[in-house]
């Protein structure tokens, strides 16, 4: 119970004191009713209630705890200018629930707005972010293709080019790829399907014959929409293909992979052209043996690396001259003269070892370079060569014509390093002279 004392004032006739106190009015206020009147009936009863007049505590119910959210509000008991403070305390979770209940309509609207914003952001991601990501992937693929184009035309061996191409395809497509290349005059071909799944490998093995022709390959892949094929080479110059499973990744990278196939085709054609030019520059067109240019390069290398003390660096040189080539050309025609040269080339290659060099240096003359050979090794080779070619012949219109040649050799262990070829040539001419002394002149 609160008691308020209020003075009763009446008007006075005195100018200096216009009011006078006629008595005191006592007002009783029920504390519980005052507090309940200040509380919101729709809210839970607080765990802490305190009524304060300034710093003076008038009423208290409950204990002050740190876990409570405390709030003060002013109340007017309606008695003069008296002012009181009502302090309430509720649990924090209760406060949050109360706020949500109070503002539940606004909260629902806010949640709906947030949901709509999420939908809009996802739509924007589809239209803006994902295309930007795709653009970044395309830019990275372009950089890889530019680097590949430079590396591909610098590759010395087709096997290096093949491995590089497959790695780039898998990097751009971001999934396993297979690579198939046809065999050619200068390349043994390849069949790299190991990264593909087993069912695809089995399918390609079953239809292996179709892989060698672009038309049959197209018919085959038209029935398999789950496979993504990238042909290498244009129509009429089919060279092979890249293959993978058709996915979103392979479809997105389709243009870059087609460019890769075109670059690989160009690199293979360049390699084939270089190989052909090398062949023309270093191989004899009639016999296919190394020509004078290639022999001289290898001979100079042997001279530069020669050491008298190193037995493995010793070598021998042979000069071989075909007997009767001019007569054959004049009487039977150059096509038979070429056939005679081919037969001699075969005989020399058959007698020589794999690491020896057999070259046709022009006309009717051949040079041989025997690796790790001294005088006795050269003599043994000369004897073996004569024995193997004792019955060498060719047939023209049922006429059997014998083929013979004269030879001379020199070796680094017995002869002057500076004059090896000259000495071998002189010895060949000496043997040739002896041959014609034993034979009737045939026009050479």
UniProtKB/TrEMBL annotation:
UniProt-listed NCBIfam families: GGDEF
PROSITE patterns per record: GGDEF
Organism: Cellvibrio fontiphilus
The organism's place on the tree of life at top rank: Bacteria
Name the UniProt record assigns to this protein: GGDEF domain-containing protein
Pfam families attached to this UniProt entry: GGDEF (PF00990)
Domain GGDEF intervals: 313-444
InterPro entries cross-referenced by the UniProt entry: DGC-Regulatory_Protein, GGDEF_dom, Nucleotide_cyclase, Rev_trsase/Diguanyl_cyclase
């Amino acid at each position: 119970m609160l008691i308020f004392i209020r003075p009763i004032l009446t008007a006075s006739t005195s100018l200096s004191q216009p009011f006078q106190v006629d008595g005191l009015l006592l007002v009783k206020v029920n504390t519980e009713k005052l507090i309940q009147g200040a509380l919101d009936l729709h809210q839970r009863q607080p765990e802490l209630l305190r009524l304060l007049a300034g710093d003076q505590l008038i009423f208290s119910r409950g204990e002050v705890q740190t876990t409570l959210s405390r709030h003060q509000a002013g109340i007017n008991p309606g008695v003069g200018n008296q002012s009181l403070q009502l302090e309430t305390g509720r649990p924090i979770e209760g406060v949050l629930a109360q706020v949500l209940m109070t503002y539940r309509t606004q909260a629902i609207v806010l949640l709906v707005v947030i949901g709509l914003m999420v939908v809009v952001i996802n739509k924007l991601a589809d239209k803006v972010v994902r295309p930007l990501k795709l653009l970044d992937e395309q830019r990275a693929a372009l950089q890889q293709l530019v680097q590949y184009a430079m590396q591909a035309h610098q590759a010395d061996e087709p096997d290096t080019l093949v491995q590089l191409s497959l790695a780039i395809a898998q990097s751009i497509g971001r999934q396993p790829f297979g690579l198939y290349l046809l065999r050619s005059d200068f390349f043994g071909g390849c069949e790299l399907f190991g990264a593909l799944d087993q069912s695809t490998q089995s399918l390609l093995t079953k239809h292996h014959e179709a892989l060698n022709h672009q038309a049959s390959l197209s018919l085959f892949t038209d029935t398999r929409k789950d496979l993504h094929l990238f042909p290498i080479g244009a129509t009429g110059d089919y060279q092979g293909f890249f293959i993978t499973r058709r996915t979103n990744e392979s479809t997105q990278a389709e243009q870059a992979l087609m460019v890769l196939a075109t670059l690989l085709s160009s690199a293979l054609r360049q390699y084939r052209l270089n190989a052909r030019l090398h062949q023309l520059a270093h191989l004899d067109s009639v016999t296919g043996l190394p020509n004078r240019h290639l022999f001289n390069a290898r001979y100079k290398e042997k001279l530069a690396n020669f050491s008298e003390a190193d037995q493995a660096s010793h070598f021998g040189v042979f000069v071989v001259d075909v007997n009767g080539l001019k007569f054959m050309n004049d009487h039977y025609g150059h096509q038979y003269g070429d056939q005679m040269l081919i037969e001699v080339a075969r005989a020399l290659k058959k007698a020589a070892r794999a690491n020896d060099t057999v070259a046709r240096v022009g006309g009717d003359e051949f040079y041989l370079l025997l690796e790790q050979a001294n005088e006795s090794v050269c003599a043994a080779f000369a004897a073996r060569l004569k024995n193997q070619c004792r019955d060498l012949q060719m047939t023209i219109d049922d006429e059997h014509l014998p083929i013979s040649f004269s030879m001379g050799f020199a070796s680094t262990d017995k002869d002057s390093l500076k004059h090896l070829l000259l000495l071998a040539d002189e010895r060949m001419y000496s043997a040739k002279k002896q041959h014609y002394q034993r034979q009737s002149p045939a026009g050479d």
